[in-house]
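Changelog excerpt

This revision adds worked examples to the README so contributors can see how folded entries look when concatenated. The first example is reproduced verbatim below.
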Amino acid sequence: MQVIRFVAILLTSLITFCSAKGVERIVGGFEVSIEQAPYQVALLYYGFLRCGGSIISRKFVLTAAHCVHYVPASYLSIRAGSAEHASGGTEHKVGRVDIHPKYDNSLLDYDAAILTLQQNIQFDTLKKPIRLPFLNQALPTGTYVTTSGWGLTGDGVLASSVLRMVELRVTDQVECYKIYQEDGGITTRMVCAGAISKDSCDGDSGGPLVDIRTKKLVGIVSFGLDRGKCAIDGVPGVYTRVASIRPWIRQIVRF
């Protein structure tokens, strides 16, 4: 009976995880130590990697809404302070899940969620919060950014056990809209970023998009054009624009 229940849990996780359009994914990147991204956490579902996330305060983690949509908080935990999603660092149980009230599961608009942890994260060199941009702070086309996670490193390749990072550039919003217009389009709550043969990939959803210059969390890994295909030349990935949801974050998180 326990085996059947366990298999059912895994199937539920897979169905929920793949229900969003073109769930995002790190290709063409490189392995990094957690000291290089101390804000990064692994979001776990019954102990198994589900998505990524970013530490924004001792008790709060920012991730993508599609990672936790219809998932009870009691099923979730995060691992902080480790470059490996399955070991090391500290594991913290999630006590509450807040999904953006305007989240659209079909368009993945307002694709953001805040996880409230049952116990505070103790900050050190391996676990640190990342700063957020101001409300509607501009993110010019061409801005160099990084994203990181434990997702697939290529089509048909197993997820990485060690944290990987890739450098991208912010794409022109109008051009990105043209690419995605048949897939529902791009809204002002989204930002696009890409590079030749580089991308985020399945398993990286919810992870950080960081401005290399300001070191601020400017995006949340959200979706891509084709599920299961990564780093398609000319097709950037899409990220939730953190600057557009600052008022909602402020309502929940007291810095």
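The second example, added in the same revision:
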Amino acid sequence: MLLELAQWLARDVRGFNVFSYITLRTVLAALTSLAISFVIGPAMIRKLTAYKIGQSVRDDGPQTHLVKAGTPTMGGALILVSIAVSTLLWADLGNRYVWVVLVTTLGFGVIGWVDDYRKVVYRNPKGLSVAAKFFWQSAIAFSVALYLAVTAEMPAQTTMIVPFFKQVAIPLGVAGFVALTYLVIVGTSNAVNLTDGLDGLAIMPTVMISSALAIFAYAAGHAVFAKYLGIPHIPHAGELAVFCGALAGAGLAFLWFNAYPAEVFMGDVGALALGAALGAVTVIVRQEIVLVIMGGVFVVETLSVMLQVASFKLLGRRIFRMAPLHHHYELKGWKENQVVVRFWIITMMLVLFGLSSLKLR
């Protein structure tokens, strides 16, 4: 929106051409979403508190979590509003990738919102049924995957890139690309949701990963940089850096309210949407394996749940004291802040390792 205005004004005042730079608009998008969240955040938290939209706490969980009961949830709506407004203001609205990622994010946000609403308003502990949630996640992810496959203009857009190896790439074809895209979007969405169990635990890794993806998107969309770095050149993908900037800014602002002791939780409306956003950006810039590396904490949290369930059903015993993994460490005696900060540190190292794949080939 503002890009179009700047381009129109640049006809008379050349200084407005500065807004054509993706890097500047990425920074402005981050600052805008940060400001929006800070401005409307306190009012939204007061509204959620007034409507008694509070978080329920598992009885079998760490006893230290009992004090969290009643803390406002569904705060992820704040993140989504900030991302959407900031992206619409600063991104190129003629770019199809921007709309693909934005629609994916908001679509998964709606699924999470319905789930949260049923839990906290109708007091239905199950919320949206697993089957219904999976159906709608699948419908959105499959639609996005099919659209990206059909509109792909070059083989690089549907080829799996193996990081750290310059000449290794796996052609997927339409079917393979659709299947991989579906798994990445749905898998990342649910992985972030499973990780969102402690104050600030999920949001900071999301901010770090989205910031790194902004770099990948910018490089992939720039023909010269892509050739120099040996990564696929995806025309127009650079505009996704603006979206990633908006996500990072909104996430940092939310952390202000979500840091221990949390004033608000993001709920499924935030966790499902943010995970889907990371997955959608990743498949467009062709860095699925790098996402697995950078999102190692999300991956391990998800695997801990899968292993716990499989072990209990097959062997009748549990591998961990409690799943997801962050609860296991809490029950071992780690303080909540210790778990959160240590997982942040691990994510930071993994993100830096993932970024190193840009040059180490």
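Reviewer comment on example two: The chain has a mean pLDDT of 91. The two ends are 38 Å apart (CA to CA).
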